[in-house]
Design goal:
By secondary structure, this protein is of the alpha/beta class. The protein contains 26 helices and 30 strands. It binds one RNA strand through α7, β10, α10, β14 and α11.
Length: 800
RNA sequence: GCGGGCGUGGCGGAAUUGGCAGACGCGCCGGACUUAGGAUCCGGUGGCUUACCCGUGCAGGUUCAACUCCUGUCGCCCGCACCA
């Protein structure tokens, strides 16, 4: 009798839905467990197998914890603002609201077909005005706190999408949405001062449970470095050229200075620079380069000397030339460096190209060939000469700089402030009003949400202007402060806004008076376990930790860190071992798998295919293996029900319950499933099992394959839903065998095994080993040098 | 260049953290049942010159014992990258 998943799976999905089986309680005496998965962007293409794997991990943990008596909050929602929907709207003329609603409905239906135990009463949609009201509210709070500000700066700009991108959205010089080359453009844009939280974002990781790579990637992204700022006088002026260096100890080796081509001092002293035409030509050349060309394709150093401007080395008092070169970035440090060619490879290459002096100040290496970047004894360095540790030299020089007012210790970060706006329609309107008289004024809190107006035309303006700028009714308003005519901000927030606090809204999704009720936040926060993609570790995770720390500072949330534990699932690759992509044609549609094999098979397979945290290729034939497993489980229902089980099978049940219980918590889903497969094989060999045993099996299988578990549970007269039944306990004493197989080695080589009673002592074990015919014949005639015994494991007889 | 990780049968992957390498699944081989099998069930399956011996990318080392620890080396994947 084959398993009819096509009727059984929808049957239970309907029952779970009607009974609201997986709703979390707002208050409960049970311990709480908040499991969070990254809510999807509801794209028109629908669900991807990647979603299934990403959600199945904590789905299994949540289902198990529920059965163990936890009040589990396992929510889902939709991160629906974003460019793809808007681009689709531009192409088809269908309003993004309609597209989004349709996609969400489609996605919801698909998610339900997998049987995920989400709390469907708490679904949120970031594009719903009752949600983005609070996104805007948080922005306003940040504006009030001085954390949201406008600045004119060089920004990453995507000419194709016509939007300003954050650093995080333009990694590798490519637009994150359309992958075209990003250019640098000077523009007046919104920023969030995330750098103010840089130290806390690093230090807070100490209290987060996460793999080394998850933590390290964030630390590297923030990129904290310590060093010093040094002011170099510019000869003949009162001007100081301020630089940042991590190696103030090498100050005596400075033989030239380099400024970024965009450095403001160039314009200020244009009339003193004799070769200003060359300089401007070089600047123009740099401006044309894309970020990619400027950073990725460089082989040789280029630059121009500023004729007529010189800096003075504050310790040697010697004049050193100043260059501009595009290997120095305006966006890091002060946009200018002191160059020490003997001890920095980039400076070395530049000095070689331009024939500049190289002065060695640390002993070691061969500075004819390359810069010596290690530490050693200081030479040619005045009061530092003779010191041998970098730390000491840096400390002494920094102290000198501070005493003489030349410089000071300083910290720099690779992470920049977060460029926080899009010149697009489909995003949260930024709740700010520009008044000629009062400056920037926040939209009053009581007027939030500031609704997105209806428009006909979603095309962005050609000059990087938001479509909202074309709607006079939206733009023209009154200043909330002085009442005079004013203009509304027309930029919208970037996609990351809504996801920066969504986990808080799940706790109280319908609250109209606060982003969430404080008592409920106190109860559910922090998120106990957050699983998502590795690709979000340096963006969404950092962004949301930043927002959360801000909300903590203003007293809105009860904890500093939002996530207690963060894990990441590995990718599912295509059957060819390559990353799945439409262009490669190796994409697997999860709905195809459901219609061919059922949701339980799909769920089991994505967790069985390998280590959850590692990527693994899809294999259709391996899916069939899971299909066979599910069918064999169904077969248990028609197997003879023994009155009493065999002792061996009983022990196997206890062992399996133990293994599954432990493996789930460690995300070792593959081995948990393997052990259940083994148990099923053993039941088939035994030929019968008790109804109780079948009930136990249903319950441990339930987190993985909940539909078939419910059906069998019902047919054997289980009470209530299997999904909410009590998780089975195991008896530790029944998981250990009375006799064990002990390996026997001779001189470290495996020669055979012997059966021994558990806990057998060394003498008895050795005696038994020597009685073994084969062992006896090997050791015969040899001296025994040593005898090693590991209880219940191994006997090793070392002979000469 | 920096940071993180990975190399185990024909394939995906296990291995209680130094103690029987290859669990479980796929594939393959054989058998049963069949008009039939891409269904199901049962058995086998690392290699080999088969009582032996060799096997966890490669070369060494530590140890009674190494996939596991150490040194060196090669290859692959991911993230960041002229960050001063």
């Amino acid at each position: 009798m084959t398993y009819d998943f096509k009727t059984i799976e929808p049957k239970w999905q309907k029952i779970w839905d009607e009974k609201k089986a997986f709703s979390a309680e707002d208050k409960s005496d049970k311990p709480k467990f908040y499991a969070l998965v990254e809510f999807p962007y509801p794209s028109g293409a629908g669900m991807h197998v990647g979603h299934i794997k990403a959600y199945s991990g904590l789905e299994v943990v949540s289902r198990k914890r529920r059965m163990q008596g936890y009040n589990v909050l396992f929510p889902i929602g939709f991160d629906a603002f974003g460019l793809p929907t808007e681009n689709y709207a531009i192409k088809t003329g269908i309003h993004p609201r309609k597209v989004t609603d349709k996609n969400i409905a489609h996605f919801t239906e698909q998610l339900k077909q997998v049987g995920f135990s989400f709390d469907w009463d708490r679904v949120i949609d970031t594009t719903d005005e009752s949600y983005y009201k609070w996104t805007q509210w948080i922005f306003r709070k940040m504006f009030d706190a001085g954390l949201a500000f406008r600045d004119t700066a060089l920004v990453n700009y995507c000419p194709s999408c016509k939007v300003v991108l954050s650093n995080e959205d333009s990694q590798g010089g490519k637009c994150d949405v359309c992958h075209s080359d990003v250019i640098q453009k000077s523009k007046d844009v919104w920023y969030l001062r995330i750098t103010k939280y840089a130290d806390r974002l690093i230090d807070g990781l100490e209290n987060v449970e996460a793999s080394a790579s998850i933590k390290q990637q964030q630390v590297n992204w923030i990129g904290r470095s310590t060093g010093a700022f040094v002011n170099f006088s510019i000869s003949g002026t009162d001007e100081k050229l301020k630089i940042y260096t991590t190696r103030p100890d090498t100050l005596y080796g400075v033989t030239f200075m380099v400024m970024a081509p965009e450095h403001p001092l160039i314009e200020k002293y244009a009339d003193r620079i004799k070769n200003i035409d060359d300089v401007n030509a070089y600047k123009a050349e740099c401006a044309k380069k894309t970020e990619f060309e400027r950073t990725q394709l460089v082989k040789t150093k280029t630059g121009v000397k500023l004729e007529g401007l010189c800096a003075i080395n504050p310790v040697t008092k010697k004049e050193v030339p100043i260059y501009i070169a595009d290997y120095v970035m305006m966006g890091y440090g002060t946009g200018a460096i002191m160059a020490v060619p003997a001890h920095d490879q980039r400076d070395f290459e530049f000095a070689k190209t331009f024939g500049i002096d190289i002065v060695q100040v640390i002993k070691g290496g061969d500075i004819e060939k390359e810069a010596f970047t290690e530490s050693g004894e200081m030479i040619n360095s005045g009061f530092l000469s003779g010191l041998t540790t970098k730390e000491e030299s840096i400390a002494k020089m920094t102290a000198y700089l501070e005493e003489n007012g030349i410089g000071e210790a300083g910290v720099q970060y690779k992470m920049k402030d977060w460029a926080f706006n899009r010149q697009r329609y489909w995003g949260e309107p930024i709740p700010i009003i520009h008044c000629k008289y009062c400056g920037m004024v926040g939209v009053p809190y009581e007027e939030l949400p500031l609704r997105l107006p209806d428009v006909e035309n979603f095309e962005p303006g050609t000059d990087g202007e938001s479509p909202l700028a074309k709607i006079p009714e939206f733009v023209n308003c009154k200043c909330p402060k002085c009442g005079r005519a004013a203009r509304r901000e027309t930029d919208t927030m970037p996609q990351w806004a809504g996801s920066s606090w969504y986990f808080l809204r799940f706790i109280d999704p319908h609250n109209e008076n606060a982003l969430a009720d404080r008592e409920k936040l106190d109860y559910f926060m922090p998120v106990d376990w957050y699983n998502g993609g590795m690709e979000h570790v340096t963006r969404h995770v950092i962004y949301s930790r930043f927002w959360h720390k801000f909300l903590y500072d203003i007293g809105v949330v009860p904890c500093d860190e939002p996530y207690k534990k963060r894990t990441a699932q590995g990718l599912i690759l295509g059957p060819d071992g390559e990353k799945m992509s439409k262009s490669r044609g190796n994409v697997v549609d999860p709905l195809d798998v459901i219609s061919e094999h059922g949701a339980d098979v799909l769920r089991t397979y994505v967790l069985f295919m390998g280590d959850y945290t590692m990527s693994a290729p899809w294999s259709d034939s391996s899916v069939r293996g899971c299909r066979r497993f599910i069918e064999r489980v169904w077969g248990l229902l028609f197997m003879q029900k023994g009155k009493g089980s065999t002792e061996k099978l009983e022990s196997s049940f206890h062992k399996t319950v133990k293994k599954v219980t432990n493996d789930i918590e460690q995300m070792k889903f593959n081995t948990a499933i393997a052990s259940m497969m083994s148990l099923v094989n053993e039941i088939y060999e035994t030929g019968s099992l008790t109804t109780d045993e079948l009930g136990t099996f249903c319950r441990i299988l339930s987190p993985f394959a909940p539909h078939i578990s419910e059906e069998i549970w019902e047919r054997i007269g289980g009470r209530g839903l299997c999904s909410l039944a009590q998780w089975p306990e195991y008896d530790e004493s029944k998981t250990v065998d009375s006799t064990v197989t002990v390996a026997v080695q001779v001189s470290g080589k495996m020669k055979g095994t012997i059966q021994l009673p558990k806990g057998c002592d060394k003498d008895a074990a050795l005696a038994a080993a020597k009685r073994d015919e084969k062992i006896a014949s090997i050791i015969e005639g040899h001296d025994i040098i040593k005898e090693i015994f590991v209880p219940d494991r191994i006997v090793n007889i070392v002979i000469k």
